[in-house]
Amino acid sequence: MIGVRRVRSALIWTALAVAVGVPVVVAATSPLLAWRDPIYIVAGLAGVVALALLLIQPLLAGGYLPGLRVRLGRRLHAWVGAGLVAAVVVHVAGLWLTSPPDVVDALLFDSPTPFSAWGVVAMWAVFATALLAVLRGRLRLAVWRLCHMILAVVIVVGTVVHAMLIDGTMGIVSKAALCGLVTVAAARVVLDPRLLADIRRMASQSGRRARRTAVMNGASRGDGA
Question: Does residue 5 have a pLDDT over 70?
Answer without folding.
Answer: yes
